[in-house]
What we know:
Blueprint: E1 3-5, E2 8-10, E3 28-30, E4 33-34, H1 37-46, H2 66-76, H3 83-87, H4 94-105, H5 108-111, H6 114-128, H7 138-142, H8 150-171
Antiparallel strand pairs: 1-2, 3-4
Helix pairs in contact: 1-6, 2-4, 4-6, 4-8, 6-8
Iron/sulfur cluster (SF4) binds at residues 78-84, 95-96, 99, 142-145, 147.
Amino acid sequence: TTCQLHMRKFKDGDTIVIEPWRAAAFPVIRDCAVDRTAFDRIIAAGGFVSVNTGAAPEASTIPVPKADADRAFDAAACIGCGACVAACKNASAMLFVSAKVSHLSFLPQGKVEAKKRVLAMVAQMDKEGFGNCTNLYECQAACPKGITVDYIAKMNREYLGATVTYAEKVYGKD
Ligand code: SF4
């Protein structure tokens, strides 16, 4: 028989080491199954674009530079599997959240709510109890979709920019 654990395969006789589960934000349901609805709540906090419903607009009315479209597409490849959280010794969800933040903020339709989105999604991530990112890169190595830590750096820049904007709104520019 073969055993498949988060997209890795093992043959009879292989030695596998199973570490204690350390992601408090993903409670264990039973053997080899965890509750990943924390990811759903992070998406619900801001991982969408608000639109007025009606007829679908003409697809080519908003031009998108090829490089931005490609980067948004790469980020959108994230399937929310949670392997990044499982691989990180801090149980950080930064790779997942940064992919979801980036795939919208690279596109003009997503830029409108980008500041509000990054603040809301990071706040929800913290509320769910995920750990901090300490640049271990284990998430990137474990990701089956090739999401890179570059997206984390992008999200950190976006978050900082959004924090400054909101602070200026509340306290003024001085
Ligand atoms: S491992 Fe990759 S695909 Fe899976 S949730 Fe994390 S970023 Fe998304």
